[in-house]
Design goal:
The chain has about 450 residues and is of the alpha/beta class. Helices cover about 35% and strands about 20% of the residues.
Amino acid sequence: MAAFSTFSSLPPELLKTLDSLGFEHMTQIQAESIPVIFEGKDLIAQSKTGSGKTLAFGIPTVIKTDTAQNTPQTLIITPTRELAEQIATSLRQVAAYKPNLKVLTLYGGVPLRAQADSLTKGAHILVGTPGRLLDHLSKETLDLDSIERVILDEADRMLDMGFYEDILKITQSLPEKRQTLLFSATFSPKIEELAATLLHDPETIKVQTEHEAQKIAERYYETDEKFRTLKTLIGSYQPESLLIFANTKSDVMALADRLHQEGHSVIDLHGDLDQTERNEAVIAFANGSKRIMVATDVASRGLDIEGIDMVINHDLPFDQEVYTHRIGRTGRADAVGTALSLTGSRINPKTAYVRDRAHKGDPKALRVDKHYTMQSDYDTLVLGSGKRDKLRKGDILGTLCKEIGIEVGDIGKIDLTQNRSYIALHHRATDKVLKALKNGVKIKKQKVKGWVLD
């Protein structure tokens, strides 16, 4: 695939930013979509998860944004909080070369008033979920008159979640003259209806939507003792990182608790967690301090974490499209992955699809290390200060190494949010850092509170 540098419309500073982020060559969806978006045409783009669509619409959006105008110019509508955060993070990274460009997220789980206050200060790109966008519109804390383009990301998922009418209500508050971009992994009749309603003479791009067989190995195991089989699979495959799906919140919590009792580094993700807890669960899983995540389908979309070796469906979804999105969390970009599913010995017509697309595995043929546990060598250290306090990764790294004496090799991924910082820290260094912070060691001349994420 061609390099981003082949686009003459991309500023040299942006190319340097993309290169620093590890993006040199375009994916197919990027190569085909970016020229269409630059031309100002409406677009329907169908591509699988992990195909690079965020950059496909993100790069033109950032370039086209006029930071001299302190008004919203792009509205991105997405189904979940997690995906909204993922998109906002990606856009901020791309926009690093462009000072003063502001991306604001609008979703539930965060006080409405705090978001309204941020809106009064101005933003250029809004990323939000349908419900919270409608909340702001109803309270007149959101003005969309200056929007030039609207992007519907994971449109099929939004319709699955019942947001069709909400999307129509939101778009009624948008200027008639605008660019509309619709991205979807599948193209159902309902998507066609939505596109016909909202888009004007759109270009259509379809990229391979099925997961490539050589990238994701799919197997299913028949069992009437799911947890025993789950332990067998973990002890046999021994993945570095594992995402397990269950269908209900209660099953997720119970399964995570049992795995924790077995000695695994595990965290759960489901809809009963508040937004900070959900963000922290994703951070801990992504930085390797928790090697197993057990989740409901809140993680089947919008969880863009590199290096997930394996997905296990402890419970199969009744919708094959949901299955496709679940297993798409592994084998992303150029990586390969494994997707395993547990199914009862009796065939359930609603989950029979797995037998058509996956190979049947034999638990008796697995070589199992009964003593193997997915333990992590790392903790996640949380600091009670973040971007709002002007902290940078370099400030944290400098204090840990120069002031406290921690070896660079004991420090993993560092993530910063507005109010907090998260550092993956080797077990042998954790107590030393906590003690130093308690004794008054400062980061960027600030005394910072620290604790370990459970």
